[in-house]
From TrEMBL:
Keywords: Membrane, Transmembrane, Transmembrane helix. The chain crosses the membrane at residues 21-40. CDD domains: SGNH_hydrolase. This is SGNH hydrolase-type esterase domain-containing protein. It comes from Micractinium conductrix.
Amino acid sequence: MAADKLAGLLRAAEVARDRRAAWVGISLASVALLTALLALSSHGGGHLWNSWRAHRLQSPRLQPPQMPWRPLLTAEERDQGVAHYGGGARLRSVAAKLLAGQPIKAYAVGGSVTYGHGVEDPSLAYPSLFFRHINVSFPHRAWRVPARREAGVSRRAITAAGHRDGAVGRGGAVSAPTAFSRPPCGTGGHVLSNRGLPGSTSGITAPCVHGMVAADADLVVVEFSTNDSPAGWTSGGKHGFEALLRTLLALPGRPAVVLLHHYAWWKAAGDGRSAGLYYREPEVQLETFALYYDLPSLSLKAATWRLMEAGVEGFKVDGVLSRGSRDGVTGEPIPAAAPRRASSYLYLDTIHPGPNGHQVLAELLAGLLGRAVSEVAGGRTPAARWHPRLQGLPPPMIPNFPDSRASLCIQLEAFRGVVRHQRGFSYSPEKPLLPRFEEQKWGWSAEQPGAWLELEVDTRQPRGQPQARRTEVQLGHLRSNFNMGTALVKCAAGCRCRPSVLGGTSASRATVFRAHAFQVSQHARCRLRVTVRQQPGMVPEEGHKVMLAAVAVTHQLGD
């Protein structure tokens, strides 16, 4: 019922395009006038600029377009959800392009929340809602919401990192130069692309992101606060998150990178609370990156925690929309909301937002962009300090950060062909009942000790790069708290490496993909053997299952 109501509001909002187009015209005229006045200022017309600026500050402020749905959050709550705004220069560049009538390229990368789990209709996922807001407020005829049959991604997903961008639409596949050659949704319009992939983490995404986000991207939303590990600062997970941010920030298009922190109420346990712990990691850790790199960041928790705790309609958390969810601490069933009360609740299950939750995430993004639009329309000009030593990115925040470049990323269906020989492994889905390939979590899996497979990759460094001081292979594997085991990883032919142990066990109930990284020598045909072990992992479990789903090769540069 709530989904139908929201869909109706979205359709009704299309009627308001002319009004919004008029607003864009007024704002565009303001930008043109501002440009002219700045030119006068630089040629002796400073008194005219100062006079206009003083008049502008006394004039009624131009209001940004309204969201094409009935908001759940108040303006004050949206402001509370802005964990960090910072200087906002890159975000204002996006706003200036929109006000100037230019199309933008916007992407969302993340896990199952970004992919759209929690809503049956992909158009009601937060990336689709946010992208619709952009298109309705600053319309370009070439953009459209992907239909359900288009919601998947091509399964020919293989890339040497740094090549062509993939197709528009849902999904997290990485594309080969030949996999997606058509322009996304026509030419000349916005490119608004959801690259979420269920179960993915920042460490898995970092070496593959060049094939997921265009080099000239304008805006990238990053959502990994649910799937990333709360491990310490020098862990591989934090290295992966910083590598992802640095890769995105260094793109030629200088995109505005926005951190979006989802908050799983029923997973936030600790210190005497079975749910709703406010300071559950890794959000606070990831927020520190926002402060260090001056990235706008948004927090569902900051905007709605008081509403959830108080049981406000639309934000209730004393139940979830789906049946079968259990309290992660007590094991007790979590009440399922009656269908007629669905619009009262925020979450589908213990992790994923329902329609209300997705709408709130979209409203936070829309409010953030609206703030930048208002600043540009109001005449705010860049005033950044210039110094030669302040140019480019700051040094890595984490000490001894391994600055690296990826030469290979293979995942999804393309990973099937990487395996040359196997005994006891099969290529199968982890969740076969889900409707789309990329959410079924396909990979090579085995459950019996002694089972083995061999995969072959090129670990050589691309020509023209500075000599790498270290080359690593990263094996993407499933980690869960149920029925998982360990595997021995060795170099079988071509390349050399020390044997290492891949661990698939976890104390967390979340089922996500992690990267097992190890150093190798460079070789055109590096053959790796993975053998399921009898020995349990750090968190002993009953089974021995090992599942591999991706492989990447990275080269660490520097001294």
